[in-house]
Design brief:
Chain lengths: 408, 510
């Protein structure tokens, strides 16, 4: 019944516009083999031990402007999201104990976006609005095994919340014509995971990195389900209750390299594989025993990332990047809370050294989605009828960000 | 630092480009074509079906789902510039009308569940607040007046509150609410809107009033001549007013409406014992009546022949009901069994069928006593004999449509529909065969993405709880068919709606 809850998670993968570091993002969100700043805490903790300074801090925040438009040519119906500004942030600190060992702490918000359609729009039986917050907190250790090889990693503590609203059907209203709807709310959902990375320094100029972040299954237990505008009739037996649901955050493997072409130019390449295959179906169990099964049938998805950095002057560094992001969503499973098809990211940015210790990092990313005709074919209405919801979707996202790098 | 600020400028530019745009946006004004029609000022004329009446009442959400309002929302997609479609909305969703605080029409029907019985009941969850003395000021686009017949649209004073009290009433409370002045006509007010396009769905009440009353007053069917005259004049007035394009809808057959086909005429379901008893009773009636006739000097052979029609046989299972008919020489007792084609009205008191033997016989203890006497070969007194004959409890004429009435209705409908089709042709207007559409709904049903829309009462989805008027989904079906007719007549490409998004009946226990 409340399958759109799944969207919160797919949003993380599907809308996973990586914003875990302005320097990396400016280079197409590459970073598994780029030793540049404490952003490595997210991208590859094995690299922290190579940072030159005793203490390195990278922190920043981005503004996610995203919008999705939908239209149906047969009926002339249209809708647009009116998403509030998303503000994912990160904080990475690395402290070098000695030449071979560094400790770190990273805090980042990889799942922090919101989709808000107009209430009662054509797809409101699938989703009116959805909001997800997840904060990752990760202590790290980075250890140099040999001059050319280091490893790093640490446990991840995740605390998350989700709020989701949709209409109960395409037509059910109260006597005044107000659409019957349900809001699902779960907060303070805490889980643990881990990540581990390795970094090879093949030659002075070529680094190869590998990083793996574990799958984390979010267990929402005792969340609140709030029903509104329910007509007073035994024919619509809905009342406020609680629910349990499991939401998988799939594992992700990143492999990549960086190459210092000359004094000015650094090139980077990352490959991500996100193991979305774990996400077959979202099952929600309500307190009254009713179970809602919502097929998702995601498949593992890849992202190819390319980045370049140009050291223009002592104080100014310019960066640019590109990535190609495959959608885990398969044909017939295109739900409007996850209006996600393959996309391309165009990124750029710069760092400006204000003092020898402090630099300001900026980035921007423009995410381009092809216009796509798609449908979600697995909605089952109150009469057991399978009703597809389809149309043409077009999404864009624009993400300016600013951060600081502090070295001591 | 100056350079740095310059880069921020580039970022800001990028943000402006953030809006997703389709290659062919459907909300572009030329995404769909209005063809040769000018929808910029659409005016709808008609009766309850145009007003959005449903569940035996007019209420806001029903009006919002009137077929003209659904049409208008689609027209808005092809009209350049401002487009308004204003309806004389009721004050609430309870539906009843007040006149000076006194309720004059009942609230809407809702589907309520009481003791596991799921039945339409009158909504009592709130007091009605629409007082017809609170008149509305236009301009309006929807001139659907519930209860109106063809000629009513041309009748001066149809919106004059004084005309409600006359006998017969010459005004309509719904038009009283929004007539521009007491003397105006519906068509005059519509013409004053300077329409560019119009729809007309009228004539249903010209036959339906007769039909829904069970055909009790034959005069109730409008004469063919009056209908044709009024209909032509309405259309001519609209065309002259500037609405050179428009669409006309014809009248559905009553047999396709749940009001007439929900209670089967053979719903008298009997056990073998009950059937035998009832057969015995009617044999007794025939026997007694034979005696009565012979006492009136009718020759025995003739008496037996005449009375034998009352020896009606019943069998285990479904049996057709008994109805009252006018007393004639060939049917001196004035009742008979229904024929296969005859129809029972939805409003019949269904509870009385088992409890009072309505549609068969009310056999009480006194009658049983007489029957026992007869069985033993006894001779009943005239009073006792009369008791038996009086126990026959056929359906009242007002609760059924008999063959003759059905025929009259069918002829009238056919005649009116011929007029409508001809006027559409004469004036080069789009034409919707609503009769064929509702026949298809009643027979095969209309498939849509959420199942099949049928005319089955309460559950079929097309008809509201009064069994005559449509649900929002039913009105959406009409709107789609109308769009199709308009597109074809005027080479337009107005998009249709998905009827699955329109609701059906409203459940409520309030």
């Amino acid at each position: 019944m409340v399958f759109a809850l799944a969207g919160t998670i797919t949003y993380a993968g599907g809308y996973r516009v990586g914003v875990q570091g302005q320097r990396a993002l400016a280079m197409g969100h590459t970073g598994v083999a780029v030793v540049n700043s404490a952003e490595l805490g997210f991208f590859n903790p094995a690299g922290l031990v190579y940072l030159e300074n005793k203490l390195t801090i990278s922190a920043g925040v981005s503004a996610v402007f995203s919008e999705v438009a939908w239209q149906n040519e047969a009926t002339g119906a249209t809708a647009r999201t009116d998403n509030p500004l998303g503000t994912p942030f990160y904080f990475n600190a690395s402290y070098k104990l000695n030449e071979n060992l560094a400790l770190g702490l990273s805090v980042y918000t990889p799942y922090g976006s919101t989709v808000e359609w107009e209430d009662d729009w054509a797809g409101s039986h699938l989703v009116n609005n959805i909001a997800l917050q997840a904060i990752y907190i990760q202590p790290l250790v980075s250890y140099k095994i040999a001059d050319f090889f280091s490893i790093g990693g640490g446990p991840i503590f995740v605390t998350g919340s989700v709020n989701f609203n949709r209409n109960l059907s395409r037509t059910l209203t109260d006597i005044e014509g107000n659409r019957a709807n349900v809001t699902i709310d779960a907060s303070g959902v805490n889980e643990w995971g881990w990540s581990v990375g390795a970094l090879f320094t093949a030659t002075e100029d070529l680094k190869v990195g590998l990083n793996y972040r574990s799958e984390i299954i979010m267990n929402a237990e005792g969340g609140e389900a709030d029903f509104e505008n329910i007509p007073n009739t035994p024919l619509a037996p809905f009342s406020d209750t609680t629910f349990d649901a499991q939401l998988p955050l799939p594992a992700e493997l990143t492999a990549g390299l960086s190459y210092q072409l000359n004094e000015k130019w650094l090139l980077a390449f990352d490959f991500n594989r996100t193991f979305w295959g774990v996400y077959e179906s979202l099952d929600i169990t309500f307190a009254n025993g009713v179970v809602s099964e919502n097929p998702r049938a995601y498949e593992d998805a890849n992202t190819w990332r390319f980045g370049a950095q140009y050291t223009a002057t002592d104080k100014l560094t310019l960066r640019a990047g590109y990535y190609l992001d495959e959608s885990p969503v398969q044909e017939g499973y295109f739900a409007p809370e996850t209006p996600r098809n393959d996309s391309m990211g165009f990124t750029g940015g710069l760092s400006l050294e204000v003092t020898s210790r402090l630099a300001i990092d900026t980035s921007f990313a423009y995410i381009r989605f092809d216009e796509v005709d798609a449908s979600y074919d697995h909605y089952v209405d109150e009469n057991g009828q399978n009703i597809p919801f389809g149309g043409t979707y077009k999404s864009v996202a624009f993400i300016p960000g600013i951060g600081v790098t502090y070295k001591m | 630092m100056k350079n740095y600020i310059k880069y921020f400028g580039i970022l800001a530019l990028g943000m402006v480009a953030c809006e997703p745009e389709f290659e062919n946006p459907v909300d572009d004004v030329d995404a769909y074509s209005n063809g040769e029609a000018d929808f910029s000022n659409y005016v709808a004329l008609g009766n309850s079906l145009t007003a959005g009446y449903a569940d035996n009442a007019l209420y806001i959400t029903g009006q919002q789902n009137s077929y003209p309002n659904i049409l208008a929302q689609q027209f808005a997609k092809v009209v350049e510039g401002d487009f308004d479609f204003v309806q004389p909305l009721m004050a609430d969703n309870a539906g009843g009308l007040l006149a000076g605080g006194q309720q004059i029409t009942s609230n809407r029907l809702v589907l309520s569940v009481v003791d596991q019985d799921t039945l339409p009941r009158i909504y009592t969850g709130m007091e009605p607040t629409t007082d017809i003395l609170n008149t509305l000021t236009g301009p309006f686009n929807n001139f659907g007046v519930p209860g109106a017949r063809s000629y009513h649209l041309l009748a001066p004073g149809y919106g004059n509150v004084q005309g409600l009290a006359t006998d017969p009433a010459t005004a309509n409370p719904y038009f009283v609410r929004f007539a521009s002045d007491p003397g105006t006509t519906v068509v005059a007010d519509a013409v004053a809107q300077q329409p560019t396009f119009f729809s007309l769905w009228i004539g249903n009440n010209d036959v339906l009033g007769y039909a829904t009353s069970g055909g009790v007053d034959e005069n109730d069917i409008t004469s063919q001549q009056v209908f044709t005259g009024a209909y032509t004049q309405i259309v001519a007035s609209m065309v002259e007013a500037g609405a050179e394009e428009g669409v006309l809808l014809n009248i559905p057959n009553v047999t396709d409406i749940p009001f007439f086909n929900t209670v089967p005429n053979n719903a008298l379901v009997l056990t073998a014992e009950q059937a035998a008893n009832l057969t015995g009773f009617f044999q007794a009636v025939a026997g007694i009546f034979t005696q009565v006739l012979m006492q009136q000097q009718v020759p025995q052979e003739q008496a037996v022949a005449l009375a034998s029609q009352y020896a009606i046989q019943f069998s285990a299972g479904p049996n057709r009901f008994i109805i009252d008919v006018p007393v004639t020489q060939t049917n001196p007792l004035g009742f008979r069994q229904m024929t296969e084609e005859e129809l029972v009205l939805l409003t019949i008191d269904r509870a009385a069928i088992p409890t009072q033997g309505y549609g068969s016989a009310a056999v009480g203890p006194e009658v049983l006593q007489v029957l026992g006497l007869l069985q033993q070969g006894g001779q009943p007194t005239p009073e006792q004999a009369q008791l038996v004959i009086d126990a026959v409890n056929g359906f009242d004429d007002a609760d059924v449509l008999d063959n003759q009435e059905i025929q009259r209705i069918a002829e009238a409908t056919q005649g009116f529909n011929a007029t409508i089709a001809k006027v559409a042709e004469d004036f080069d207007l789009a034409f919707v065969d609503a009769a064929a559409l509702l026949e298809e709904t009643a027979t095969t049903g209309i498939p849509f993405d959420g199942g099949v829309l049928t005319s089955t009462f309460a559950s079929g989805g097309a008809f509201s709880l009064d069994g005559v008027h449509l649900t929002p989904r039913g009105y959406a079906l009409i709107a789609n068919e109308t769009i199709e007719a308009i597109n074809s007549e005027y080479n337009a490409t107005v998009p249709k709606v998905n009827i699955g998004y329109y609701g059906t009946i409203t459940p409520s226990n309030d």
